[in-house]
UniProtKB/TrEMBL annotation:
GO molecular function, one term: oxygen carrier activity
Site-annotated residues for Influences the redox potential of the prosthetic heme and FAD groups: 84, 390
HAMAP family tied to this protein: Hmp
Gene3D superfamilies xref list: Globins, Nucleotide-binding domain of ferredoxin-NADP reductase (FNR) module, Translation factors
Involved in heme-bound ligand stabilization and O-O bond activation (site feature) positions: 29
Domain FAD-binding FR-type: from-to ranges: 152-262
CC cofactor: heme b; FAD
Keywords: Detoxification, FAD, Flavoprotein, Heme, Iron, Metal-binding, NAD, NADP, Oxidoreductase, Oxygen transport, Transport
Cited function: Is involved in NO detoxification in an aerobic process, termed nitric oxide dioxygenase (NOD) reaction that utilizes O(2) and NAD(P)H to convert NO to nitrate, which protects the bacterium from various noxious nitrogen compounds. Therefore, plays a central role in the inducible response to nitrosative stress.
Coiled-coil intervals, chain numbering: none
GO BP, sorted A to Z: cellular response to nitrosative stress; nitric oxide catabolic process; response to toxic substance
Protein name in UniProt: Flavohemoprotein
């Protein structure tokens, strides 16, 4: 339990973290990777290069400082980050390394303001916060391993099929190399894939949403090819598209994530996606079709045009098999305007047509897209607890960024 003095000091430094947090975390990652380059096998290099990881950590530190007396208030954040860590193979022994380098970075950036009292208070607080994460993640590892067909860290899977879904999205069907059963998962969850790309010193990790319903003898991920293969965010997606074929092996983590469909509910569902954010929606849509055909579903998707949109035929088939489902395609620049239900964007006026009593809204796509959807739904009177969203990458504060988040 933290002392009163420690709590007072940590809370007093919260405004400094709000101002200097990202600067501190940039110094932190630089120091840590210089001292422990092996950790580059765990962290997502694209998120590092774009500053997303640094911003996410700064936000987490600020939240912890604000709620140091009631850390249970940040448990949703701990849960979300814990899933990311479990998917990447973060271990208990990594936390002291993080703490040592984080405190050193605070000293560097804060200078004279980083008194012995401040650093000692944060060292004490870090131990408490780290143990919260360690405990949550230990349970997650146990759950992943103990379920039927489960495992703890990474396991080799074989590509059983490779299907082009659109001009930029390709699906990979993955089966366990050892022939074991495929564990179940919640619609909306993701897996981490780990690949060794020629010319890269370290293995590369990326997290991709599972794009089909649970209950099959495979996992399916659907990957968007990023336009610039030599940039960090494009290295893995282009490698998968160009070099991974049927019969090849990929190491993956067990499914993780807390952006999931409530399959027990019977309330109407509105699935809102932009671009490759369609992937979790396909898992949710397929699951509803399998488990609750009477449930009302509205599938709304925004894309540049019909050529880049994946799963058009699948969506059509699902709707035909459901009793109360509809789709709305919004294309910004359609090749053939007749293929678009709406030419342009999903505006507040568009959404107003699909606001339903007690409906749940699931949103995934680039952050600006999600911010617009969330803001407009709130203006239309949708309650916060009925709005669920997920974006690719670290847990940035959606209110503080206009940066598109894309899978790579």
């Amino acid at each position: 339990m933290l002392s009163k003095k420690t709590i007072e000091i940590v809370k007093a430094t919260a405004p400094v973290l709000e101002e200097k947090g990202t600067e501190i975390t940039k110094h932190f990652y630089k120091k840590m990777f210089a001292a422990h380059p092996e950790l580059l096998n765990i962290f997502n290099h694209a998120n590092q290069g774009q500053g997303r990881q640094q911003t996410a950590l700064a936000n987490a530190l600020y939240a912890a400082a604000q709620h140091i007396e009631q850390l249970e208030a940040i448990l949703p954040v701990v849960q979300q980050v814990g899933y990311k860590h479990r998917g990447l193979g973060v271990k208990k022994e990594h936390y002291p390394i993080v703490g040592e380098n984080l405190l050193a970075a605070m000293k560097e950036v804060l200078g004279n303001a980083a008194t012995d009292d401040v650093i000692n208070a944060w060292a004490e607080a870090y131990d408490v916060i780290a143990n919260v994460f360690i405990d949550v993640e230990a349970k997650m590892y146990d759950q992943a391993e103990e379920q039927q067909g489960g495992w703890r860290f990474f396991k080799p899977f074989v590509v059983a099929n490779k299907v082009k879904e659109s001009s930029i999205i390709t699906s990979f069907y993955l089966k366990p190399k050892d022939g074991d059963t495929v564990p179940t998962f919640l619609p909306g969850q993701y897996i981490t894939i780990r690949v060794k790309v020629e010319g890269e010193t370290y293995v590369l990790n990326r997290q991709y949403t599972l794009s089909d319903a649970p209950g099959n003898d495979y996992f399916r991920i659907s990957v968007k090819r990023e336009a610039e293969p030599n940039k960090p965010e494009g290295k893995v997606s282009n490698y998968l598209h160009d070099h991974i074929d049927v019969g090849d092996e990929i190491e993956i983590s067990a499914p993780a994530g807390d952006f999931t469909l409530d399959t027990a509910a019977s309330t109407p569902v509105v699935l809102l996606s932009g671009g490759v954010g369609i992937t979790p929606m396909m898992s949710m849509f397929n699951t509803i079709a399998k488990q609750n055909k009477e449930r009302s579903v509205t599938f709304i998707h925004a894309a540049r045009n019909e050529e880049v949109q994946a799963f058009k035929n699948t969506v059509k088939e699902i709707i035909e098999n459901l009793e109360n489902a509809e789709k709305v395609y919004c294309y910004d620049k359609p090749v053939h305007p007749e293929n678009a239900d709406i030419v342009g964007h999903i505006t507040k006026d568009v959404l107003e047509n699909y606001v339903k009593d007690h409906a749940d809204y699931y949103i995934c796509g680039p952050v600006p897209f999600m911010k617009a959807m969330i803001t407009n739904l709130q203006k239309l009177g949708v309650k916060e607890e009925n709005i669920h969203y997920e974006f690719f990458g670290p847990a940035l504060n959606i209110e503080q960024t206009n940066t598109p988040i894309k899978a790579s």
